[in-house]
Amino acid sequence: MKWFSNFRNVKIVLIVVAALIAATSLIVSNALVSDLKTEERKKMQVWADAMDYLNRADENTDLSLVLSVLNGNTTIPVVVTDKKGAISQHRNIEIPSDTDSLAVLMDVVARMRADGRIIRVDLGADGEDYLEVCYSESLILKQLAYYPYVQLIVVLLFFVVCFFAILSSKRAEQNRVWVGLSKETAHQLGTPISSLMAWTTVLKEKYPSDELIPEMERDVARLQRVAERFSKIGSLPEPTSEDAVDVVERAVEYMKRRSPSQVTYTFSAPRRPLLVRMNAPLIEWVVENLCKNAVDAMNGAGAINISLKQGKDYIYLEVSDTGKGIPKSKHKQVFEPGYTTKKRGWGLGLSLAKRIVEEYHKGRIYVKKSAVGRGTTFCVELKK
Question: 38, 69, 97, 191: which could join 50 in a potential S-S bond, CB 3.0 to 4.6 Å?
């Protein structure tokens, strides 16, 4: 049961089952079509025998049964030719009114001969005079031959629609869980943060010259900002025109102060201002998450390079590290909720970053490049 609880494993099972159904359907259908071809061949042999009997009959022969057999063929296209290849008669072949009927029939006969659908009818004992009965598959048989493939396409489309419906439902359910968790976290943080703000005010009044109190105030303000970010998950924040350089720089400076001393940061950006409509606290959160992941990937020692570049319609934020890298097969998986390589952690950082960038800011976030053992570069695209 645990194996089936993994959605990826369920997808594999569904694909294998669909492939087995498709293969079985094709095998059975092809077997039926093959049997029908054999039956049509037998019918045409009887038709050719009736043609032979008609040519040998005299004025005293009862032809009612023979004519019944000959006229009973209303589905199988057939052309009768003599030994010189001249067409004597044809049945069940549509000839367009504005075309040369003889040319059309000769073309049909050529295709029938190429397919090997010919029955020879000897008119004399010496075999010098004969007719050739050329035929092709009936319209019903042709439709049956194509029907399994049409059926498979319909089943495949139905399967794809159902698969994406299930996937969408699963993602919607995950989103509701993460949104509820984020809002509950913000709610739970609200009371202790308010209490801490009050206590810092009391301490500031009692010890106005203490150098640690301003640091405490900054940390409490930081906590308040974090709670505000969590509270905005699930609702559509109002974007404002912000200088992207200032926003990213604030996040980088914050991470510098809280990263190990063995981690070095470099930040490059174009000239200010680089105006972008965004929600600044949420974009700062994205930058911080990318930097935290970079620090974890480097085990607390290495170099992180943050760069801002501007294009015609977009700005590009790149965060590179010298960490352990990400295998190419995991480039999309790292953004899935719950995915983490750490012993501790919920695996929500990159998932929330993706939601902030793509759903709230209509941008893109992706792994631009990565090499195992050499590092990773994440790229964030935002409209100018």
Answer: 69
**Sign (positive or negative) of CA dihedral 18, 23, 26, 32:** negative
The angle subtended at Cα 229 by Cα 262 and Cα 333, nearest 5°, is 65
CA–CA gap between residue 52 and residue 50 (Å, rounded): 5
Cα 295 to Cα 259: distance, rounded to the nearest angstrom: 8
Alpha carbons 357 and 292: distance in angstroms, whole number: 17
Helix (H, G, I), strand (E, B) or coil at 161: helix
Distance CA 44, CA 50 (A): 10
- What tens digit of pLDDT does each residue of 21-39 get? 878 878 888 888 888 888 8
- Is residue 66 within 8 A of residue 54, CB to CB? The reply is yes
Separation of alpha carbons 296 and 88, rounded Å: 87
- pLDDT for 259-303, tens place per residue? 888 999 999 998 878 889 998 888 998 999 999 999 988 988 999
Residue 180 CB coordination number (10 Å): 12
Of 77, 80, 99, nearest in space to 89 by CA: 80
Cross-strand bridge partners of residue 131? 82, 121
